[in-house]
């Protein structure tokens, strides 16, 4: 009996660059206290008012099969939200509710890529991207965004690869792992490349409520892009509902119709009581979203003050999302070497930039997901260790 090539090669084989993370988790399991600044999980739970809505919906009987495309109320709410944000006319027929953004990413690539097609994505990238693309039988090809361009991807670099033939391009702004928000210029360049080379654009916007500087622009709103753009959204980050698994795809009606077929034959939708809770949360007003985002904005400000008083660790412009990307190249170490040393010496776990591709070599990603005082103390320790290494290097 043989397993499919697709499933056995999903992760691409070899090191996935997540060894530091696994090691930190093992240390914690062994009872060693580790300060974790690794994954994108809030340090608050889902708001009690959302849980109460979820409970009321479940107790009220919304526990059977829910409508596969999503319940009408939530599809309408998502459509209205996306329309208000982007100005693009959007109805429930443009919306499919999915079990989280991850499932939406998989569905979007399923809709746009045939087996063997090239699917482009930007490096540094959210760790699941290449596996998601392989999961639909397409071939993931990375286009690097460079540190010297503040990790804004260059249209010419994308065009260079797209000109060899590709079906889709996946972008993510606000970006995980860099915290960069793509500028209008970047997005307009991307849109032109998509039109020139007839690419589908899959726009992962799950951090759209976490913008600290600049503005979030959905590329679906750019001229002639609505017909070729699939937007991925999620309740996970905006409402601290990571475990509820509720997200969406917004795109052309025809694509959504096909994706409803896909959902019927794969997920069979999202539990009704979760959708009711999501609908409640999205209608609860901006305050709730701001409350969920506030700790990250606050910690980013704390980090910027701290980092301004030293000159070893560089901060990539932290414009959005719940992460800081730090440039550690002055230490002469790779991100992985620095992260391993930090874990061994100070029991602080961060993600090596190399966990997210080649472009963030010599960087580390710090998740701003622990209480302010602990976050600041960990960052100070990190900076002190970096300065020590770099001073020692200079003296050699
Ligand atoms: C960039 C990005 N996209 C998608 C996801 C998936 O989120 P979810 O499936 O919880 O909606 C994440 C989760 O961390 C992410 O960082």
From TrEMBL:
Residues annotated as transmembrane: none
Keyword line: Aminotransferase, Pyridoxal phosphate, Transferase
Name of the protein described by the UniProt record: aspartate transaminase
Xref: CDD domains: AAT_like (cd00609)
UniProt-listed InterPro entries: Aminotransferase_I/II_large, AspAT/PAT-like, PyrdxlP-dep_Trfase, PyrdxlP-dep_Trfase_major
Family: Belongs to the class-I pyridoxal-phosphate-dependent aminotransferase family.
EC number assigned by the record: 2.6.1.1
GO MF, one example: L-aspartate:2-oxoglutarate aminotransferase activity
Aminotransferase class I/classII large domain boundaries: 34-379
One BP annotation, GO: amino acid metabolic process
Reaction equations catalysed: L-aspartate + 2-oxoglutarate = oxaloacetate + L-glutamate
Short name of any one Pfam family annotated for the protein: Aminotran_1_2
Species: Phaeobacter gallaeciensis
Enzyme class: transferase
Domain of life assignment: Bacteria
Required cofactor(s): pyridoxal 5'-phosphate
């Amino acid at each position: 009996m043989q397993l499919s090539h697709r499933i056995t090669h999903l992760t691409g084989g070899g090191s996935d660059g997540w060894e530091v993370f696994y090691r930190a988790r093992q240390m914690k399991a062994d009872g060693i206290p580790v300060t974790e600044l690794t994954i994108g999980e809030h340090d608050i739970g889902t708001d009690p008012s959302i849980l109460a809505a979820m409970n009321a919906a479940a107790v009220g009987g919304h526990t059977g099969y829910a409508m596969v495309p999503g319940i009408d109320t939530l599809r309408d709410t998502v459509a209205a939200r996306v329309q208000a944000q982007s100005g693009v006319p959007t109805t429930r027929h443009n919306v499919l509710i999915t079990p989280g953004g991850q499932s939406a990413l998989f569905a979007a690539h399923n809709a746009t890529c045939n087996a063997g097609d090239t699917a482009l994505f930007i490096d540094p990238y959210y760790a699941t991207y290449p596996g998601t693309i392989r999961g639909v039988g397409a071939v993931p090809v990375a286009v690097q965004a460079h540190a010297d361009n503040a990790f804004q991807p260059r249209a010419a670099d994308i065009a260079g690869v797209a000109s060899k033939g590709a079906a889709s391009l996946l972008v993510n702004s606000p970006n995980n792992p860099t915290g960069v928000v793509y500028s209008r210029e970047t997005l307009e360049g991307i849109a032109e490349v998509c039109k020139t080379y007839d690419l589908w654009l899959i726009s992962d916007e799950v951090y759209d409520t976490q913008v600290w500087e600049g503005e979030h622009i959905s590329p679906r709103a750019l001229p002639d892009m609505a017909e070729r753009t699939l937007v991925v959204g999620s309740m996970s980050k905006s409402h601290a509902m990571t475990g509820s698994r509720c997200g969406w795809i917004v795109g052309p009606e025809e694509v959504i119709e096909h994706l409803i077929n896909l959902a019927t034959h794969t997920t069979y939708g999202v539990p009704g009581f979760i959708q009711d809770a999501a609908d409640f949360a999205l209608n609860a007003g901006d305050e709730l979203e701001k409350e969920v985002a506030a700790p990250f904005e606050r910690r980013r400000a704390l980090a910027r003050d701290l980092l301004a008083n030293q000159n070893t660790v560089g901060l990539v412009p932290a414009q959005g999302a719940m992460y800081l990307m730090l440039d550690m190249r002055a230490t002469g170490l790779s991100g992985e070497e620095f992260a391993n040393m930090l874990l061994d010496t100070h029991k602080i776990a961060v993600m090596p930039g190399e966990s997210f591709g080649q472009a963030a070599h010599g960087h580390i990603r710090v998740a701003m997901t622990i209480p302010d005082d602990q976050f600041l103390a960990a960052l100070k320790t990190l900076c002190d260790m970096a300065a020590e290494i770099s001073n020692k290097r200079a003296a050699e």
